[in-house]
Design goal:
With 245 residues, the protein is α+β, with helices and mostly antiparallel strands. 31% of the residues lie in helices and 28% in strands. The chain folds into 2 domains: 10-72, Arc Repressor Mutant, subunit A (Orthogonal Bundle), CATH 1.10.10.10; 95-235, Chorismate lyase-like (Chorismate lyase, 3-Layer(aba) Sandwich), CATH 3.40.1410. It is globular and about 60 Å long.
C-alpha cells in the first residue's frame, strides 16, 4: 500500500524502515526493497529515496552491498526493555531476528541499592524479586537487563519469582488480575562505571584497575497505588540504541 502520510519526504521513508529494523521485521542481512520499489511504494522521487537510505546509513542501520543493494547492518540498534513491550504489542516479536538471551537468573533478595529503594518506595532490607538476563546479537553480548519487582507485584504475579522466562509481559497479567493498569514512568539514562558482574555478563575482559564506562537506562512501572517494578538496562560499550524523539 502506498505511503500516504502527511509531510511525506525522505525522513518519512527513513522512519518507515527504521521502525521495521527496530521492531525486528527486518533482520540483519535482510535486503531493503530496490530504489524503484521504494519509489513506487511511497510515491516519491529517486532523490528522496537516496536521501532516506543515506540517512539510515549514517545511523549505522544499513549498509550498501553493491549488486545486492542495501541491507540491514549486522549490528543494528539495541532497544530497551520498555521498547520490547511496544514491539511485542505491535507484532508479537519478543526478540529481533538473530537476537537471543542467556544467563537468566531469578532471585529473592533484600534490597539495599538506594536508587532502587527510592524508585520502588522501599526501605533498605525490604524483599524484592530480581530477574537478570543478557541479550545477545549473534555471538556478541549487547546488554544486561535487570528487573526488580516489589512484593505487591509478585503477590499478584507469582510467576515473576519462578525460574525461566516469562511467556507474557508481566504488566498484562497484573492488569488482568487486578483491573489496574500498569503505567511506565519516564525513561532516564546515565553513564557510570560497570561492575565486575556486568563486565563478565557482557564478555568484557578488562584489568581490575581499568574503569569501563557503560550507558544505563532505567524506568519505573506503577499502578494507581504506587510503584511496582524497576527496570535497568546496561549496554555494552559501542552499542547503539534509539533515543525517543
Amino acid at each position: 500500500m502506498p505511503y500516504k502520510g502527511p509531510g511525506k519526504g525522505y525522513a518519512d521513508v527513513a522512519s518507515h524502515f527504521r521502525q521495521q529494523i527496530q521492531s525486528g521485521e527486518l533482520a540483519p542481512g535482510d535486503t531493503l526493497p530496490s530504489v524503484a520499489d521504494i519509489r513506487a511504494e511511497f510515491d516519491v522521487a529517486a532523490k528522496t529515496v537516496s536521501r532516506a537510505l543515506a540517512l539510515l546509513k549514517s545511523e549505522g542501520l544499513v549498509v550498501a552491498r553493491g549488486a545486492l543493494g542495501t541491507v540491514v547492518a549486522t549490528s543494528p540498534m539495541v532497544i530497551t526493555g520498555a521498547d520490547r513491550i511496544d514491539r511485542i504489542a505491535r507484532n508479537g516479536l519478543r526478540y529481533a531476528p538473530g537476537e537471543t538471551s542467556a544467563g537468566h537468573q531469578v532471585m529473592r533478595r533484600s534490597v539495599v541499592d538506594p536508587q532502587v529503594c527510592e524508585a520502588l518506595d522501599l526501605e533498605p532490607g525490604d524483599e524484592v524479586v530480581i530477574r537478570i538476563r543478557t541479550f545477545r546479537q549473534g555471538e556478541k553480548a549487547t546488554s544486561v537487563a535487570v528487573s526488580v519487582y516489589s512484593v505487591q507485584a509478585t503477590n499478584e504475579v507469582p510467576e515473576l519469582a519462578d525460574e525461566g522466562r516469562m511467556e507474557r509481559y508481566w504488566g498484562d497479567i497484573y492488569t488482568e488480575r487486578t483491573g489496574r493498569e500498569v503505567v511506565t514512568g519516564q525513561r532516564t539514562a546515565r553513564a557510570r562505571q560497570a561492575s565486575q558482574d556486568e563486565l563478565d555478563a557482557l564478555g568484557i575482559d578488562a584489568p581490575q584497575h581499568v574503569s569501563v564506562a557503560v550507558l544505563v537506562t532505567s524506568q519505573t512501572f506503577h499502578d494507581e497505588s504506587g510503584p511496582l517494578a524497576y527496570w535497568e538496562d546496561v549496554y555494552a560499550p559501542g552499542t547503539h540504541m534509539p533515543i525517543p524523539g
